[in-house]
């Protein structure tokens, strides 16, 4: 059976909900298809000690402030999940859960969205599938020789299962620093980063990051030179658990090793470290496999965009996905603006 909607939004995490908010405001009939059973997108799956890098008010979607979490300046992931569940309810967003989108095809003046529970036809599609389902692991020699456990950020749940073990954490971003800080007190930790860790000043958090990202977007929009945005400030927000571990002298970063061995890791000078587990905090890629048949990917594997719109498919918009559709567009506070722009462009498309 094929169902119809003005717009199909694929993905019901924060980006999909922000899209729904703006589509609803413009009176555009839509449905939000989400693969998972519960609200909250990727926030449902992160480790317990994860803290947002901004206070609640600076982690808000359009229309509704995130409430302050009792006793915490920087909310945890469970708080974000309840905020998103409440947001969805409050704005009566039409989310259908347990609907996995496998492919999107052109179908005359419509797009056909194939799910594991039937097809949808729509005049436009907004894709907001995030990056969590596409963890990235670098190809390091010896990865298949290592006899210990290897996992990515997406599989890390907390320090309990590693107590007393020798653990190598790879990655100098926020995930690497937070997971290293989480593991440091109870494991024999080796933290490796490609370059020395760059902490933001302790009084800088996501608020300043958002300001830097906004300044960058304005500069780029105005044709001025790139301000460097967030990257110019540093890589790691010193949220309280990271600051505490760093100040206790528990976070020493080693340079990146050159290979894995059966027993651990080895650096270029022949130094080795034995390990029971390696945790790869090495980032993500956009989850866009469902567009394979549209053949939109350019030479670097990215779908080219003009704002949020796919350059070669005017009925398709992308939301979230790192900086793909603008600085900070994959953050809670940053996704509102591109979501509004996408909804407005779609309103024009449907009106014409
Ligand atoms: P997701 O939350 O991943 O939601 C996508 C949804 O789409 C999911 O429910 C998924 O199941 C569904 N989906 C995927 N593929 C399909 C498909 N084919 N069919 C149907 N459904 C599908 N941002 C901040 O603002 N503050 C922070 O402090 C912060 N910390 C972060 C820490 C970490 C470790 C990470 C990884 C990111 C962090 N971010 C932070 C960035 C960002 O806010 C999150 O990545 C956020 O989850 C992105 O939301 P999203 O809606 O774009 O994607």
Key descriptive features of the protein:
nine-stranded mixed β-sheet; single chain; binds flavin-adenine dinucleotide; 22% helix; 352 residues; alpha/beta; five-stranded parallel β-sheet; FAD/NAD(P)-binding domain
Task: Tell me what the structure shows.
With 352 residues, this protein is of the alpha/beta class. It folds into two domains: 2-133 and 284-351, FAD/NAD(P)-binding domain (3-Layer(bba) Sandwich), CATH 3.50.50; 149-199 and 235-280, FAD/NAD(P)-binding domain, CATH 3.50.50. It is built from six helices and 17 strands. It has helices at 14-25, 77-90, 174-183, 206-221, 240-247, 336-351; strands at residues 2-10, 30-34, 95-97, 101-107, 110-115, 118-127, 149-152, 166-170, 188-193, 253-255, 259-260, 264-266, 272-274, 277-280, 305-306, 309-310, 313-318. Strands 1, 2, 3, 4, 5, 6, 15, 16 and 17 form a nine-stranded mixed sheet that branches. A five-stranded parallel sheet has the order 7-14-8-9-10, covered by helices on one side. It has a three-stranded antiparallel sheet with strand order 11-12-13, with no helix packed on it. A hairpin with a 5-residue loop joins β12 (264-266) and β13. It is globular, with a radius of gyration of 21 Å. It starts with a strand and ends with a helix. The model has no long low-confidence stretch (mean pLDDT 92). Bound molecules: flavin-adenine dinucleotide. Residues 10-16, 33-36, 41-43, 46, 52-54, 59, 100-101, 128-130, 132-133, 174-175, 206, 287, 290, 320, 330-332 line the site of flavin-adenine dinucleotide.
């Amino acid at each position: 059976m094929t169902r119809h909607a003005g717009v199909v939004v694929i993905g019901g995490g924060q980006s999909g909900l922000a899209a729904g908010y703006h589509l609803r405001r413009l009176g555009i009939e839509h449905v939000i298809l989400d693969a998972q059973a519960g609200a909250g997108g990727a926030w449902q799956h992160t480790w317990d000690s994860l803290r947002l890098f901004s206070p609640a008010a600076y982690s808000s979607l359009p229309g509704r402030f995130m409430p302050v979490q009792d006793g915490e300046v920087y909310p945890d992931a469970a708080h974000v999940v309840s905020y998103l569940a409440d947001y969805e309810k409050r704005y009566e967003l039409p989310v259908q859960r347990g609907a996995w989108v496998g492919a999107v095809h052109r179908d005359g003046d419509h797009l056909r969205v194939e799910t594991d529970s039937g097809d949808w036809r729509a005049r436009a599609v907004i894709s907001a599938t995030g990056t969590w389902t596409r963890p990235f692991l670098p190809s390091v020699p010896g990865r298949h020789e290592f006899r210990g456990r290897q996992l990515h950020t997406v599989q890390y749940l907390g320090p309990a299962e590693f107590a007393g073990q020798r653990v190598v954490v790879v990655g100098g971003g926020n995930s690497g620093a937070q997971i290293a800080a989480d593991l440091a007190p109870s494991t024999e930790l080796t933290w490796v980063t490609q370059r020395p860790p760059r902490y933001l000043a302790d009084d800088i958090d996501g608020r300043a990051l958002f300001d830097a990202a906004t300044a960058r977007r304005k500069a780029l929009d105005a044709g001025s030179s790139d301000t460097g945005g967030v990257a110019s400030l540093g890589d790691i927000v010193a949220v309280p658990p990271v600051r505490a571990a760093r100040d206790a002298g528990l976070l020493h970063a080693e340079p990146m090793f050159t290979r894995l061995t059966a027993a651990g890791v080895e650096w270029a000078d022949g130094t080795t470290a034995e390990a029971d587990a390696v945790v790869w905090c090495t980032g993500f890629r956009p989850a866009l496999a469902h567009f394979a048949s549209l053949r939109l990917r350019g030479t670097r594997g990215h779908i080219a965009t003009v704002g949020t719109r796919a350059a070669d498919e005017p009925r398709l918009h992308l939301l979230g996905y790192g900086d793909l559709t603008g600085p900070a567009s994959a953050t809670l506070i940053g996704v509102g603006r591109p979501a509004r722009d996408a909804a407005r462009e779609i309103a024009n498309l449907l009106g014409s």
